[in-house]
Design goal:
This protein has about 425 residues and is of the alpha/beta class. It contains 15 helices and 14 strands. It has 2 domains: about 250 residues, Type I PLP-dependent aspartate aminotransferase-like (Major domain) (Aspartate Aminotransferase, domain 2); about 150 residues, Aspartate Aminotransferase, domain 1, CATH 3.90.1150.10.
Amino acid sequence: MERFDGSFTQQEPIPEAGIAAALAVLRHGRLHRYNTAPGELAETALLEEEFAAFTGARYCLAVASGGYAMGCALRALQVRPGEPVLTNAFTLAPVPGAIASVGARPVFIETTWNLTIDLDHLERMARETGARLLMLSHMRGHLADMEALMALCNRLGVTVIEDCAHTMGAAWNGVASGRFGAIGCYSMQTYKHINAGEGGFLITDDAELAARAVLLSGSYMLYARHRAAPPAEVFDRIRLDVPNVSGRMDNLRAAILRPQIALLDDRRARWNRLYRVLEEGLAATPGLRLTERPAAETYVASSFQFLLPDFGANRMRAFVTGCAARGVELKWFGAPEPVAFTSRYEHWRYADPQPLPQTDRVLAGLVDMRLPLTFTPEDAALIARIIRAEVLRVGQAEVPAKVADENAGAAAIPLAD
């Protein structure tokens, strides 16, 4: 039996230019973004300017994390205590966590078989709750039909915040992810598309939202030192009305990140090559469903998802365990308890989640896998062979009668939307 011996958590090293820039910051000791020598431009201010140019946004703010960026976006939009905020049921815990952290109430929306937000359910819940905000999670890099989504939200009067933690460098019909909504939020955590260990961006074209975000992040009236921010008169109108909720990025992380922006196009090409090798290796595997990538979507495949919609819980456990024994680390979103980074909407009790039967059917057979760029195409081909072999082995195994009865509902899950 073939076995994979690589690591699913080992990232590429920081580029030499980032290491050199970080050492320069460490040597002069001015890590705080507003601690600069006369005539010096802070690494953080330059990073914001460069990322704004990369996305085409007018304004950009670098912050401590992607989760902070989302919370800051909600505060900038002046969310109220108890206010409903719509969001994907299929996402990761920091998204509803950001909503709950500002005292708002997450309202979860159903998931399609292509792992995007269900627009019909979105419209129904927007009308039922009267929500004025949608925290749209481009979970695991899957973009919804953004023209259709924005047309719906504009018609409903719903303002969109985009969680782009998994879509930095992605686009829909040529428009960068994060540029559709009022605010786009990004993450630079280790497993994201550029790596500072932690970090976040917030981008917008709205001058007042940008000014509010800068003040919220803890600018201490030093907002004139930002290069991708509105002019001083915008700040002057609101500077005494916005609280300081400190969450700044520091110059050390900014120095590490700046050289990585230029690498994003190459990283996208390399990630997508690995993704295509896996797609080819798993195509036509009995019982395994691949997600469809629309022609309008320019994706960055830093992870890989597939579905085993007919397996049921017993076979899913056996499949994940079998792959792990052969060195392939998979996450199953249908597990009854959260495991490490993998959890689902019903685990977030603070949000008072309501049952979502369509999402439950999707997550019951959903498998997720990281694709670090330390993998080669040959690694991806080997991983695909192992997954295919385990799907066939487990799928053909007999299931005890009692377990078969328990899993009977899963067998009725359709393979098409």
